[in-house]
Amino acid sequence: MKLVLDTNVIHDDFMLHGPRITKLCSAAPSLGYEVLIPEVVCDELVNQYRKKLLQNMSGYSAVVKLIDEVKTGAKSSFEKDAFVSKSVYDYRPVLLSRLHELGINIIPYPSVDAKKLVSKDLLLKKPFREVKEDTIGLCDAMIWESIKSICVRPTAEEQFLLGGHAYRKLCSVGDYKNYHCTECMEISTDRGRNTNIR
Question: Model confidence over 76-85: pLDDT tens digits?
Fold first, then answer.
């Protein structure tokens, strides 16, 4: 069984040391689960990390500047944007290393049919949705395409557990309770075999 993690499973646990993720990853091998994370989810985590830093920088930046000025007697040279950029740059390898330590395998970005993806976007097919005149869902679509990309492994039946609320984004209202949706049918059609998504 493959357990695919979505961003909200790891929300605000940027260093992946929280009890939920560590317990999950320590129990997974004995349960026969392979824990996977799409590369797009890694990028979403890096972006959330960046946003969290920016949210907390105003107070931090002011304090650092004040301390620098007290220590040196001169105007501080602290640059908020440079600090955030360096922090984000330094975070990515830490994240990848921790994923490796936990035994979480990364599903690389898939090759996708751009025309098909744009068609879904324009028709607002799941996971695309319109919020205040903006269409959102590209990352969700890439997560789904990542899942589909690993369905090519030659097994008689493949089963997935989608961690988080990914199934709600992918399936139509009412369908998600049974975890069957048009996207699940798309895997069966594209790959010609039985794939269960729970």
Answer: 888 888 999 9
The DSSP code for 132 is: T
Running DSSP on this structure, what letter comes out for residue 192? S
Question: pTM higher than 0.85 for the full model?
Answer: no
Higher pLDDT, 121 or 57: 57
CA 148 to chain centre: 15
Token pair for residue 191?
A: 């790959």
Instruction: Collect all residues with Cβ–Cβ distance below 8 Å to 71 and sequence separation of at least 6.
Output: none
CB within 8 Å of 185: residues ≥ 6 apart: none
d(CA 140, CA 112): 13
- Do 24 and 57 meet the contact criterion of CB atoms below 8 Å apart? no
Q: Are 193 and 156 in contact (CB under 8 A)?
A: yes
- How is residue 82 written in tokens? 């440079």
Token pair of 60 as six digits: 């931090």
Q: Which residue has the higher pLDDT, 131 or 30?
A: 30
CA distance 197 to 157: 11
Q: What is the mean pLDDT of residues 43-68?
A: 88
Nearest residue to 1 (alpha-carbon basis) of 180, 166, 156, 158: 158
User: Do β-strands 157-162 and 194-197 pair in parallel, antiparallel, or remain unpaired?
Assistant: parallel
Pairing relationship of beta strands 2-4 and 194-197 according to DSSP bridges: unpaired
